[in-house]
Amino acid sequence: MLSKVPVRIFLQKKINIASFLVFLFFWTCSGLRHFLLNSNAYDLGLFDQWIWLVSKGLPPYSSMEGVHLLADHGAWVLYFAALPYKFYPSLQWLLATQAACLSFTAIPIWFVGRQAGLTGKFCWLVCLLWWLQPVVFNANLFDFHPEVWAMPALAGSYWANRANKPWIWISLLLFLLGCRDGLVLVVAGLGIEQAFRRRWAWSASAIGLALAWLAFLNRLVYPLLTGTNAGPKAAANLFPYLGNTLDEVLINLITKPNLLISNVDWGGGLIYLLLISIAVFPLWRNASIPVLLGSIPLVFVNLISQEAPQRTLIHHYSLPIAVIVIIAVIDGLAVKIKQPFPLKALAWSAVCWAALAKPWFFTGPYLARFDSVVPVYQALNSIPDSSRVITTSYLVPHLSNRSNINFPRDIDRPITLENVDVLLLNPKDPGWASSSQSQIDYLLTARKAKWNCKTWPIGLELCQRP
């Protein structure tokens, strides 16, 4: 028995090293995407500005949305992210921590595997399956979202639950809830799993926490910060066919199921179910069912939402499901400890990663602005840190460490430069939610006001208040 201890320590050191190497790969990919001008105002620039404002002791209201940091998704963990910004304000903190959390989630997964009785090679298998989840790679590239920070905690919550560590479990669930309001669905799902296992106290604590946090946000925090019922309405926007407020959505969901039948794309839903399970389902067994039950609330909401991005592997909305399905694999493998290594299943997962992840974006879409890199960085270096800026959406994250930043959108409103010092626009490449004409109108207004303007052959134009 004692001879096995050094082996376990050696294997655990190897998984730490492997996780670190995956972290470097993930961070390199997200950092390169940002350098190549493919990050965006929503959501990297948005979160970067909020956290920068907190680090400076300023009210954290986004100049792009006019919304308080907590009124967005109740993510109080963002306040802790402001600490490193005090020493070095850079959105690379966000990209690095996001990459780290996604890569190092493998470590609590490893411990859950050991806890289930898996051998070292099978623990390596489940860690590899985690890293090969397409949504993990894609979420790392999709700007930044604080719920990514919760993934190690979610994996760790399974270890704490199975080790009968209730206070550690509750602490991890509270951290999950602090990363995004939508994670109440995951916490409630953990409660459903515990109810299936007839662990009633654990079930009640998880479901109670989820409901209490949802009520706290929607009844107190959101109305207090917005002066309206905006929080519940924001959630209800996902299901407009069910009502205009969260209360109406919940009531109609129960009393009018016919609305679901007539408004939900069930064919697309089946494809979504296939996408989130295809890479690992060959390794599920009957023992996997209780864990999979925990995904029901989040999967259901993604299915019935009118927002199509919630049913893709490109965005972050299905990321918690990736943790759940890997834990389900652990329980499936634990049914029969002595079995041949499922090399075919690992190969299949690699094939799914190649088909559904998007590393190939670096060979095409992410190179679309390659010719703009040099002139853009020349222009960025000409903009004072204190300037109030309007720029294109994909340049916002490069300038979001300031109190006032925005991007032109295609909405009917008069163009005014009263509260603007700098325009950095490119009508030839207007970016998300904008158009060439709206950017041309801004630049013409600046020229009429005799602003100092400089242009580059790619269509980029920098105009500064004299």
User: What is the strand arrangement across the widest sheet?
Assistant: 2-1-3-5-4
Fraction in helix: 55-70%
- Terminal Cα separation, in Å? 77 Å
Strand content: under 5%
Provide the number of structural domains.
2
Helix/strand order, N-terminal first: HHHHHHHHHHHHHHHHHHHHHEEEHEE
**Mean pLDDT level:** 91
Gross morphology: globular
For the structure shown, list the relevant keywords:
466 residues, mainly alpha, 2 domains, five-stranded mixed sheet, 58% helix
Describe the secondary structure blueprint for this structure.
Blueprint: H1 4-35, H2 41-55, H3 69-73, H4 78-87, H5 92-104, H6 106-115, H7 120-131, H8 134-141, H9 151-162, H10 166-179, H11 184-196, H12 200-226, H13 230-236, H14 246-255, H15 258-263, H16 266-277, H17 289-293, H18 296-304, H19 319-334, H20 343-356, H21 373-380, E1 389-391, E2 405-406, E3 422-425, H22 436-448, E4 452-455, E5 461-464
Parallel strand pairs: 1-2, 1-3
Antiparallel strand pairs: 3-5, 4-5
Report what the structure shows.
α1 (4-35) runs parallel beside α7 (120-131), α2 (41-55) crosses α4 (78-87) and α9 runs antiparallel to α10. The mean pLDDT is 91. A five-stranded mixed beta sheet has the order 2-1-3-5-4, with helices on one face. The protein folds into two domains: 4-363, no CATH class; 372-464, no CATH class. The chain has helices spanning 4-35, 41-55, 69-73, 78-87, 92-104, 106-115, 120-131, 134-141, 151-162, 166-179, 184-196, 200-226, 230-236, 246-255, 258-263, 266-277, 289-293, 296-304, 319-334, 343-356, 373-380, 436-448; strands at 389-391, 405-406, 422-425, 452-455, 461-464. The radius of gyration is 24 Å and the shape is globular. With 466 residues, it is mainly α.
